[in-house]
Amino acid sequence: MSHAVIMRGVSDEAKDIASADYSSRCFMDESSAVGFGQILRGELADVWGECRRADWDGYDALPVSWRALRNMYVFLQALPLGFPRPTIGADPNGHLSVEWYRNPRRVLSVAVSDDDLLHYAALLGPNKTCGTETFYGEVPESILSLVRRVYS
Amino acid sequence: MIDAEHVPEVEPNELLARFILSRRHIRGSANGIKPEAFMPHPHADLSVTRHRDATEDEIWATGSAIASFRERTLQGRGDVIANAFIKQDLSVLADPLLGRADLPDNPNHANVTRWPKDDKDRQRLLALEIAKQARLVRPPDQ
């Protein structure tokens, strides 16, 4: 189950739980044992620094937008604790992307767009798949399942 | 390099080079090429250079000219056989570049065409399949 970054409950109890959960998450995320938040935030800042200008790839790539950056930040925050750490990249169409790579035949690539969509493709040994999911602030189970399959 | 007056069609067993001008397209620890390096967007076609009739020095000189023209650092090249594209229902067409103001001369230039235009997921999957078969070659001075 993915960690929900966007709180949906409206009661006081829901707010208290969300607040405690967020504090706990922040603490755990900075732990080198289970979290990789600081590393990924640094990597995200590097990619943003390089790819926010047009033609960052030398082949007329579109610049990565603020909204794509925001969505990727939320996506990374929503990854379950203890999950395999992805690497961050950018697409020539201005999306940010994450990749879980085990070897050339077991790899998942997910683009986080500025229009709240997740475009993914995966090679899983002899099988392959691709698709689109809407991003509501939680990492969809279909994508979490693909990550597990990359490393299974 | 290929004689610009007699440019042969691209054969399936030909080796092609995709010059890499962003370090974001190279995996750190695994030392491979990321699929994004093979996505043509915003262009309809992917630009590659044929190894045919070219020495290693000429291939690197072509990459350096492109990098210099685009004011980028040449990070490396992805070598991949033409058949890797053809097996994905893409086409590789010879497209020699000569005398154009916006691009350096390259008689070995070719375009990978027939990308699914509006299907980002399928494009990503094709790029993964091609990256799987590509070999990263670093410039001799790195």
Explain what the structure shows.
The complex is a heterodimer of chains A (152) and B (142). With 152 residues, chain A is an alpha+beta fold. In chain A, 37% of the residues lie in helices and 23% in strands. Chain A has four helices and five strands. A five-stranded antiparallel sheet of chain A has the order 1-2-3-4-5. The longest helix of chain A is centred in the N-terminal third of the chain and has 18 residues, at 12-29. In chain A, 33% of the residues are buried. By secondary structure, chain B is of the alpha+beta class. Chain B has helices at residues 56-69, 82-86, 120-133; strands at residues 15-20, 46-50, 76-81, 91-94, 109-113, 135-137. A six-stranded antiparallel sheet of chain B has the order 4-5-2-1-3-6, with helices on both faces. The longest helix of chain B is centred in the middle third of the chain and has 14 residues, at 56-69. The two termini of chain B are 24 Å apart. The mean pLDDT of chain B is 94. The A-B interface holds A 47, 50-51, 55-62, 87, 89-93, 97, 99, 101, 103-105, 107, 109, 111, 119-123, 128-132 and B 21-22, 24-25, 27-28, 30, 32, 34-36, 39-43, 47, 66-67, 70, 72, 120-122, 124-125, 127-129, 131-133.
